[in-house]
Structure formats: structure tokens, C-alpha cells
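Hi support team,

I submitted a single chain yesterday and got back a structure, but I'm not sure I'm reading the C-alpha cell output correctly. Could someone confirm the output below corresponds to the sequence I sent? I've pasted both exactly as they appear in my results page.

Thanks,
R.
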Amino acid sequence: MAIIEQIIHCIPGNAKILVSYQRDGFYLDTGATGETGIKFYREEGSTIDLKFTCDGYVNGEMTLRFGSTESPFTYEIFPNTKTAIIEVRETGSEKLIQGASVTLGTSNRITGLDGRAVFVVMPDIYSISVSKLGYIYNGPVTADFRYVPDNTPVYYYLSPQGIETAVLNVESTLDGIPFFTATVWINGMIQGYTPFTSSDKPAGTYQVYVEHGDYGKSKTQTVTTNTSTPTTVTCELTTTGGNDEDYSRLVIAALIAGGAYAVIKRKKK
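Hi R., thanks for writing in. Yes, this is the structure output for that exact sequence:
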């Protein structure tokens, strides 16, 4: 049979193509399609399965039949949106604030009785501002929704005029090495992801810890802030600190990535 050349493009151009050769039983990552696309060569009438992946997009799949599919062929995948919830509270009292104006990127919402403004966004970093008459906003000016789970509220604070706030920096490490994107909990509420800076809470004492799906939870630290100097707390995670399910997932990932047997020693709790 004749050998057919098939060119595949993908939109966006930085999407990767994973190829499953049905007769061979393995997957191959061909990399990004770019402007020129990726060329495949197979016998006329044979088929391969393709998967298209890109961060922030919904994966796509197709079966390519050589000789029956136009060449070049363009496959488009679409952004994976999520529901972003901004919950606005009063500094110190934790009271929900109704009627606050929240601007996320170019979109604006007004918080309801539940203190929440709801947006539909792509996983990305956005500018943010929060305002209401009689209050001052000293919080972050960007909101990172790359890692926040869908429909999970993120808390922002407005301070009644006249209340001084303090700066609290939260960092995380994994086995002593700086580690990012751990979930930050302050006084039992999710605040964001490491590295995290809070500048909208009054000086005082707070309970701080971080958590990660693969590495469990750090020890809770009691931190006292003041209005004169920033306070920094480092929360430590370990590769042996996750639960049994997380631990099993780590072992499996290590075996797959290394292609060989691996032994992970785990501390007894």
C-alpha cells in the first residue's frame, strides 16, 4: 500500500499532540504543532488516535485515517473556563460585605447578600480591585486563578476607615526547598497560594498553615503581626507528609517517570 503523508495543525499553536499507535500500544508526545504543523506517515487506510492538550484548554481527541482525512488538517481546542468566586469580608470582624464593587480584569460585579461576586474566567492571573464607600482596600492587586479549584471562594478584605493593617508574607518549602502553589490557610480560611502576601488584615495574632494535595498539611504556626514591619512565616511541607492515597500516587508517579523501581522511605506518624 501507498505511504500517506498527513499534516496536522492545532489551534492554539502551542498545543501538544499525543499519538496512540493502535497496533503498537504506546503513546508518543510529538510536542507543539507550531505554525508548520506535524507530519505523520502511515499506510493508506491505517489509523492512529490523537489527543490534543494545552494548559488552560479542554483536551481534544480524534481518530486520523490516512488517505481519508484532508491534509493539512486543523483541529481546534477551546479554553477551559472556571467559576471564580470573590468573597468580600470586613477586616477583623469577618462580616460579609454586601454591595462592594469587585473588578476582576475588565469585568465588574457587585457583591450580594452572601458577600460574593461570581465571575467566569480562564485559568490566569488577573488584576483585581475591591471598593465600597466608607472602606479602604489594602489587599493584593492581582488574583491568580491558575490553580484555584472551580467554585472555590477566595477571600478579600475591606477595612473600615481608620483601622491600620499589617503585612504578612507566607512562604512554603518542600523538604527544605522553596515550593510554590501550596494553599494558604489563615484562621481557618483559604487566602490564596504561596508565595502569598496579606496586607488587608489588622495587626494581631493569626493561625497559619499551608496545604498541598500531594504533600499534606504543614504544622499550624501562631504568628503575630504589627503595623511597622512586614512579618514573614515559612511553612514546611515534606514528601512524606501526605495521606496514604497521596503517598501511593507519589510512588506510582515515581515508577512511571523513572521507568524503574523506586523506594520511598516514609516517616511514621
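A quick pointer for reading it: The helical segments are 244-258. Let us know if anything else looks off.

Best,
Support desk
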